[in-house]
């Protein structure tokens, strides 16, 4: 499948996964199908060169991207990823998933995403700051509180957002907190943002489990990724009485039939930067993670992790997509045939962008809400979206992903149609 001239032919590439997912909603769009091509290419993609002076005086060059997939419903919204494997194809797919996610949640945003192909762990703090500032200046042409609002993703955090906000503000000559979200709270960040994605995974996952008649008490859960999304999800499910029996990150796969002590593991991870070496549990081969007996599996690391082969062997009732794009389309079909419910990323991990939306609104009004208000509004928005998609899926006999895409595409393509084509 080659959808765009500058991309390769890999049908499992992130962008092609997105295209396949959109193709599946074609039959559900009625006359709006005429506009579907809009989603098959990004509106705008910027590739930037980032020269960086290293601590030893040498200069290295890094490749960065900012892609705005669709802006029909509002400014672009989406994170910035720092990872050694980032590619334009991946950033395009991530930006497209943001378009769908914002539309399913009915947030007034389009979809965007950015990234730099770099392993941030290999840079000093000063190098990371210089890299971030130069990247922000380069993409400064197309971002802004009314144009496109970045946020953290894999490998970036509140400190990176503070540098981005400061750089953009310096360039325009006015402090503009609303240019990014996920900032530190004292710089216009929102209470609850750090835990928002994990909370969304938990709240929507609990609802899906309840629809399946699956009690959370003593439920056996496996989580891939113990970063922002994975660790908060783990904590909330453990508090609800579930047993987190396996956790995998880039460094190790931990297993304990009795359940892993999440609080102790979080403390370990904070000190060590990884889960490897955590005492009192077994360390198993990475492949074993996908073969254990679970009730719920939560991929919360990278895309493309649930392959057809893993889908055939996966032993659980419910998959909660904390990560973006963790399930390949063919694997999706296999899971459906096997009666394993997949709660798609565009709802399951939408807690982060929902609280980012709250942060953006608070920055505009310079009036800030309590954590309680944030969580109450978050739960309401995300559960409403979940129930709407659940009902559509049930009534049409389609998967939750196709139902979510149908709702989202209808909103995006209606906006596209009503706005018309310029000139
Ligand atoms: P993070 O950088 O905080 O954590 C990533 C985790 O993945 C780490 O534990 C890392 O060790 C692990 N990991 C990396 N490579 C791995 C591999 N090959 N095998 C196993 N584990 C590996 O990132 P995050 O913010 O938690 O994001 C995780 C996923 O959730 C990504 O897909 C991201 O796009 C998605 N997401 C994040 C947010 C957010 O608010 N942070 C919102 C929506 C979606």
Give a short account of the largest sheet: 7 strands, mixed
Side-by-side strand order of the widest sheet:
9-8-7-6-10-11-12
Under CATH at level 1, the class of the domain at 195-348 stands as: Alpha Beta
> What is the distance, rounded to the nearest whole angstrom, between the alpha carbons of the first and last residues?
31 Å
Q: What fraction strand?
A: 15-25%
What is the rounded Rg? 21 Å
Based on secondary structure, the structural category is alpha/beta
Can you give the mean pLDDT?
A: 96
Mind telling me the CATH superfamily name of the domain at 195-348? NAD(P)-binding Rossmann-like Domain
Q: Identify every distinct bound molecule in the structure, by name, code or SMILES.
A: nicotinamide-adenine-dinucleotide
- Helix content class: 40-55%
SS element count, helices? 13
The CATH topology of the domain at 195-348 corresponds to: Rossmann fold
**Which CATH architecture of the domain at 195-348 is right?**
3-Layer(aba) Sandwich
Helices and strands, in N-to-C order? HEEEHEHEHHEHEEHEEHEHEHHHH
Q: Give the tally of β-strands.
A: 12
Summarize the structure.
This protein has helices spanning 14-23, 88-104, 125-139, 158-172, 193-212, 228-239, 262-272, 308-313, 329-337, 345-348, 351-365, 371-396, 400-419, and strands at 44-53, 59-70, 76-83, 110-117, 148-152, 220-224, 243-248, 253-255, 282-284, 296-299, 318-320, 341-343. It is an alpha/beta fold and 423 residues long.
Task: Note down, in words, how this protein is organized.
Strand 6, helix 6 and strand 7 form a beta-alpha-beta unit. Helix 12 packs across helix 13. The protein contains 13 helices and twelve strands. 51% of the residues are buried. The protein is of the alpha/beta class and 423 residues long. It is globular and about 55 Å long. The model has no long low-confidence stretch (mean pLDDT 96). The strands form two sheets. It has a seven-stranded mixed beta sheet with strand order 9-8-7-6-10-11-12. The chain has a five-stranded mixed beta sheet with strand order 1-2-4-3-5. Bound molecules: nicotinamide-adenine-dinucleotide (NAD). The site of nicotinamide-adenine-dinucleotide has 23 residues, from helix 6. Nicotinamide-adenine-dinucleotide binds next to helix 6.
